[in-house]
Specification:
Blueprint (H helix, E strand, L loop, with lengths): L13 H6 L5 H6 L12 E4 L9 E2 L5 H4 L1 E4 L7 E4 H7 L2 E8 L2 E7 L7 E2 L3 H15 L28 H5 L9 H9 L24 H15 L3 H10 L8 E4 L12 E3 L1 H12 L3 E2 L2 E2 L3 H7 L12 E2 L2 E3 L7 E5 L3 E6 L4 E7 L5 H5 L2 H10 L2
């Protein structure tokens, strides 16, 4: 499975990156993303509706003490912990278990209204917005060439072979660059990153996860919708799904949204997006997003350079569990198990210990599912 990660800038790389005159000074100062970044990075609002959808609240159930989990992260042999002990030991910013639209368990380091950065979980939201653009007729087909929408983006002849579906499934063939990642996260003008598009492979032959793919896709979306992505998100997802809280989506100084990362929302609103995909694009009896789009997104597809466990900005889980996930840096998760109608939200800060770095939250989710 592809690992989602921002590359950490090692000290021996800093002089080289600075010499390139491309990496913003903020990237050198801060080195790597952090929970506090949203407090100083520019962001645009995504407004919630006046009447939110709310999950049911369960009766007291002592679930946090009753669920026992093997925690393999610290030692060769596992530690047996209750769920309540686990979320404190690692420590977890927010952990929510929902089954059959009922909140069975909640843990918050602060409170339920705290906005949590999603990092690359945002890619799965952008994937949904692409589906809406196709449904709305703004994008004719995912087989369209990117050059039909952004003709001047690259002079490389391979750019003419690049299709929208290659960007969505990270099979663009574009070369990954530390400098570009720094520009896309810390840069004040995201369009500067377009100057560094280079191809390593022919499009549609090799899957390589990178922010650049979704950044280009976001530029296509803003062009065809004629609106900033936060507004399209608000119209297509935030209001129809009855989100409880206003969200924020990071942008550069020119208010260009970062479609590959950096949304901030509450744990319960992330859960509603998970419910939307659990219901295959249906919400309260209304098919908002084409069911075929959702099902094809969550299908395993190894054609045109694709891989078995990742498709269209979603992680496809184990066959025995029939599960799937949106995952972000520092192990942010929206986990969905359709067979048991379960949604799990796990949001974490930057790991501070080797045990936190080694923590396999997907294994924890499946242990929980087995006990529900």
């Amino acid at each position: 499975m592809i690992r989602k990660t921002f590359h950490r800038f090692s000290f021996f790389l800093i002089p080289l990156l600075m010499a390139s005159c491309a990496l913003p000074m903020r990237g050198v100062v801060y080195l790597r993303p952090d929970l506090k970044d949203h407090k100083w990075l520019n962001a645009l609002d995504i407004k919630a509706p006046e009447t939110p959808f709310r999950f049911y609240e369960s009766e007291p159930n002592n679930l946090g003490d009753r669920i026992g989990l093997n925690d393999w992260s610290p030692y060769v042999v596992p530690i047996w912990r209750s769920l309540n002990e686990l979320v404190v030991a690692h420590p977890n910013q927010a952990f929510v278990i929902i089954r059959n639209d009922t909140v069975l368990y909640e843990h918050y380091a602060n409170d339920s209204k705290t906005l949590h950065p999603s990092y690359s979980v945002a890619k799965s939201f952008t994937s949904a917005l692409v589906g809406f653009a196709v449904q709305d007729g703004l994008i004719k087909s995912m087989d369209d060439f990117v050059s039909d929408y952004l003709p001047e983006l690259s002079k490389d002849p391979r750019y003419e072979h690049l299709k929208l579906k290659h960007l969505l499934n990270h099979t663009s063939g574009i070369e990954h660059s530390l400098t570009v990642d720094g520009l896309l996260y810390y840069g004040k003008n995201l369009k500067r990153a377009n100057n560094y598009i280079k191809f390593k492979h022919e499009p549609g032959t090799n899957q390589a996860y990178m922010n650049m793919n979704v950044w280009i896709l976001g530029q296509v979306l803003e062009k065809v919708t004629g609106a900033p992505l936060n507004e399209y998100m608000q119209a297509k997802l935030w209001i129809p799904l009855g989100m409880e809280s206003d969200a924020r989506w990071s942008a550069d100084k020119k208010d260009r949204i970062k479609p590959y990362c950096c949304m901030q929302a509450t744990a319960l609103d992330y859960a509603k997006f998970g419910r939307f995909y659990l219901k295959k694009g249906n919400w309260q009896g209304e098919q908002l997003l084409n069911k075929d789009w959702v099902e094809s997104t969550l299908a395993r597809d190894t054609t045109e350079g694709g891989t078995f466990g990742y498709h269209n900005c979603w992680y496809i889980g184990y066959k025995d569990y029939n599960d799937f996930m949106a995952i972000g840096l520092y192990k942010q998760h929206i986990y969905i198990n359709p067979d048991k109608n379960i949604i799990l939200i796990s949001l974490n800060g930057r790991p501070r210990s080797n045990a936190q770095k080694a923590m396999n939250w997907e294994d924890v989710f499946r242990q929980i599912v087995d006990q529900l």
